[in-house]
């Protein structure tokens, strides 16, 4: 599966700072010190509907992680999956009377268009669950051979009790895990499971649903968590720098994925930091496909909204915060974009050297975008009120905002 085209990231003078970022597993800030190549895995979409602003906010956060690393002169090995076969996709296809594979390809194509418009840096490897099946089957077989998986009516489950570190990603108690498992794709009440929290690794073929040859597992399709594990281990290996996604993935998805990988490899942890973006709401509720309270990136673009303004709207909130999308949010972003573009359109201005370092400090401090935006606001206000004589300043501001914030002025 191919990703989307990359926009050029300008090089800035000087050296960027190492990233301090909030790690869900430890509950505090950690300073990441990757080697020459930083490794990041971000969980991708289930393509049964278009990209909404909740998606955009999440991928924006991890785009910023890449930009901070690139500013330190590192390379970035970024991997993202597409869950292109799963119950929600099959249900939507059945509801609409369309082929599930056609629906998945259509929505994945639209996602690529949205990511391109928002100037999100693409992953080096963009892998669909279906194309990953040949690598998933051997992992499930190995878990079964290790005694970490068991069969129930043809389905294969992972035994969470085989991982001594289970629970160390989300740090939730068993009762909270059980509630979230029921809400987020698990089946804790299924009779016969060794532990209610045990997640499915391989679903035996169901009539009328797609299935693949699973070797000794029989025909079926993979569970959600093992999909990402297979892709991450194949392309990044254990101990990669950041596992990312929305806050609703901390449990069960990232918790279960970490346990799968840790049992398979005997190593701990799967990722050095588990980083989670907040939820975007609309009309008082989390924006979600199941509720239908969505604002789509593609719809905003069709209405003529500048993608740079959409991105500025996302940047105006800290990535870990839960926040509400309103018309005023977009209007404020449009006003800010107009103000910034007017400021950099002049032939000279106040020195921007200090601004670049302020941006670097803000972004290295847990991606503090509100502080970064305020710093650019201050430079633009000084440009408006006093001007300056530095002919290099407008160009430097333009490059810095592009490089570190992903906004094209």
Provide the descriptors you would attach to this structure in a database record.
about 400 residues; alpha/beta; Rossmann fold; Four Helix Bundle (Hemerythrin (Met), subunit A); 2 domains; five-stranded parallel β-sheet; four-stranded antiparallel β-sheet; 13 helices; 14 strands; about 45% helix; globular
Task: Provide an overview of this structure.
With about 400 residues, the protein is an alpha/beta fold. The chain folds into 2 domains: about 20-285, 3-Layer(aba) Sandwich (Rossmann fold); about 300-405, Anticodon-binding domain of a subclass of class I aminoacyl-tRNA synthetases (Four Helix Bundle (Hemerythrin (Met), subunit A), Up-down Bundle), CATH 1.20.120. The chain has helices spanning about 55-70, 85-95, 100-115, 130-145, 175-185, 225-235, 250-265, 295-300, 305-315, 325-345, 355-365, 370-385, 395-405, and strands at about 20-25, 30, 35-40, 75-80, 125-130, 150, 155-160, 200-205, 220, 240-245, 270-275, 280, 285, 325. The strands form 4 sheets. The protein has a 5-stranded parallel sheet, with helices on both faces. A 4-stranded antiparallel sheet has the order 6-7-8-9. The protein has a 3-stranded mixed sheet with strand order 13-12-14, covered by helices on one side. Helix 6 (about 225-235) packs across helix 7 and helix 9 crosses helix 10. The longest helix has 19 residues, at about 55-70. The relative contact order is 0.16. The model has no long low-confidence stretch (mean pLDDT about 95).
């Amino acid at each position: 599966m191919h990703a989307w085209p990359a926009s050029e990231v300008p090089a800035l003078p000087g050296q960027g700072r190492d990233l301090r970022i909030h790690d869900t597993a430890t509950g505090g800030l950690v300073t990441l010190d990757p080697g020459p190549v930083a490794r990041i895995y971000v969980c991708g979409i289930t393509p049964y509907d278009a990209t909404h602003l909740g998606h955009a906010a999440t991928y924006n956060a991890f785009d910023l992680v890449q930009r901070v690393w690139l500013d330190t002169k590192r390379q970035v090995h970024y991997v993202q999956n597409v869950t292109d076969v799963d119950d929600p996709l099959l249900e939507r296809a059945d509801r609409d009377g369309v082929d599930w594979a056609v629906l998945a390809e259509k929505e994945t194509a639209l996602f690529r268009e949205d990511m391109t418009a928002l100037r999100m840096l693409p992953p080096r490897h963009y892998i669909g669950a279906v194309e990953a099946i040949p690598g998933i089957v051997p992992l499930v077989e190995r878990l079964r051979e290790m005694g970490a998986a068991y069969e129930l009516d043809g389905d294969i489950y992972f035994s969470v009790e085989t991982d001594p570190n289970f629970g160390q990603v989300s740090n939730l108690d068993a009762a909270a895990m059980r509630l979230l498992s029921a809400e987020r794709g698990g089946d804790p009440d299924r009779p016969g499971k060794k532990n209610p929290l045990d997640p499915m690794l391989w679903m035996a073929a169901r009539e009328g649903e797609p299935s693949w040859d699973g070797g000794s597992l029989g025909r079926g399709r993979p569970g959600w968590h093992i999909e990402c594990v297979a892709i991450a281990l194949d392309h990044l290996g254990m101990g990669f720098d950041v596992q990312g996604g929305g806050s609703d993935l901390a449990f069960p998805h990232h918790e279960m994925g970490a346990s799968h990988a840790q049992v398979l490899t005997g190593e701990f942890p799967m990722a050095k930091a588990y980083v989670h973006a907040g939820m975007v709401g609309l009309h008082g509720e989390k924006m979600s496909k199941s509720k239908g309270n969505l604002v789509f990136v593609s719809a905003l673009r069709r209405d003529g909204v500048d993608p740079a303004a959409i991105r500025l709207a996302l940047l105006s909130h800290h990535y870990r915060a839960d926040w509400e999308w309103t018309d005023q949010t977009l209007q404020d972003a449009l006003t800010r974009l107009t103000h910034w573009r007017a400021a950099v359109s002049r032939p000279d201005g106040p020195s921007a050297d200090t601004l670049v370092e302020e941006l670097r400090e803000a972004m290295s401090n847990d991606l503090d975008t509100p502080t970064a935006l305020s710093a650019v606001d201050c430079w633009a206000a000084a440009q408006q009120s006093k001007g300056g004589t530095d002919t290099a300043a407008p160009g430097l501001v333009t490059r810095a905002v592009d490089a570190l914030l992903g906004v094209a002025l």
